[in-house]
């Protein structure tokens, strides 16, 4: 698992219900993770009717700026938005903004687990998340929890001020949440949670595309245990790792490993995470960035 020169990894995280804000973990091998700042938050939530910062996703753009989006609420009863902020160093952040990306769908129940992916070929960002629009997919309305019936929606932006019209991003024909993207040789890997309760799935699956905006397929068989969610993917040398919440297990956080993107083994026992780590995204940073964050201890 040789690192490229000067490379390190960070993992976003939240605690509890997301009230405390952004927490960060660090690692130099992708297996052993330590909380930064003694697990004190780096940024506290200031937008959204519930003032939560759940499922934080950070990605770095080609100019070095870090962009973050997050879930601000369980439901849209106090506003249908996701949170956004940016930073050059992960310490000082721009004022937080609420991105109202589903205003054209006033019946939307939720905007969950937003993710970012930079499309190098088109020079723009993909922003995508899970939403339920009641009655939109009636054939699967009875398969989820509490009437939720999600699909993945998306928009694109170059500046996080102007956005293309929101559209359906991924519909595998069933209830689906928590999608994440990783560029791989020959295309793009989409990892997501099959959210069906009836019949019980709640497992991770994958699909491939030659374009980051899809279409993705075919959908794989489940690659994880049941009651798994919140995947985030990373390549380290010849290994592909998918980290995920094992939220019904005593050992809360886990990971899958593959060398060919087809065969996956559970390597959760090889992982070390601090207590309370929940649904974040993993990304590379320079050693200089990591050293400045470590100096905050």
TrEMBL record:
GO terms for molecular function: hydrolase activity. Signal peptide: none annotated. InterPro entries: BT_3657-like_N, GH43_arabinanases, Glyco_hydro_beta-prop_sf. Keywords: Hydrolase. Coiled coil: none annotated. The keyword Hydrolase applies. Residues 11-101 form the Arabinosidase BT-3657-like N-terminal domain. It comes from the Bacteria. It holds the Pfam family BT_3657-like_N. This is Glycoside hydrolase family 43 protein.
């Amino acid at each position: 698992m040789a690192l490229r020169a000067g490379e390190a990894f960070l993992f976003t995280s939240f605690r509890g219900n997301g009230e405390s804000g952004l927490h960060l973990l660090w690692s130099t091998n992708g297996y052993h993770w330590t909380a930064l700042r003694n697990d004190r938050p780096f940024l506290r939530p200031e937008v959204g009717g519930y003032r939560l910062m759940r499922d934080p996703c950070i990605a770095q753009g080609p100019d070095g700026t870090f962009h973050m989006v997050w879930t601000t609420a369980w439901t849209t009863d106090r506003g249908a938005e996701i949170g956004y902020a940016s930073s050059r160093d992960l310490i000082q952040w721009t004022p937080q903004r609420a991105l109202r990306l589903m205003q054209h769908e006033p019946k939307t129940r939720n905007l969950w687990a937003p993710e970012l992916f930079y499309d190098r070929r088109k020079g723009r960002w993909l922003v995508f998340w899970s939403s339920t629009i009641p009655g939109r997919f009636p054939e699967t309305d009875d398969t989820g929890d509490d009437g939720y019936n999600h699909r993945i929606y998306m928009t694109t932006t170059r500046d996080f001020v102007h956005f293309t019209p929101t559209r359906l991003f991924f519909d595998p024909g069933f209830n689906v949440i928590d999608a994440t993207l990783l560029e791989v040789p020959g295309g793009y890997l989409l990892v997501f949670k099959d959210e069906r309760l009836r019949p019980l799935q709640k497992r991770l699956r994958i699909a491939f595309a030659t374009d980051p905006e899809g279409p993705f397929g075919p959908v794989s068989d489940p690659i994880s245990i049941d009651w798994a969610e919140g995947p985030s993917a990373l390549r380290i040398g010849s290994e592909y790792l998918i980290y995920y919440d094992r939220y019904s297990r005593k050992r809360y956080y886990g990971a899958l490993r593959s060398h060919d993107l087809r065969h996956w083994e559970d390597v959760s026992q090889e992982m070390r995470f601090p207590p309370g780590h929940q649904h974040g995204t993993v990304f590379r940073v320079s050693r200089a960035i990591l050293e400045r964050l470590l100096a905050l201890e």
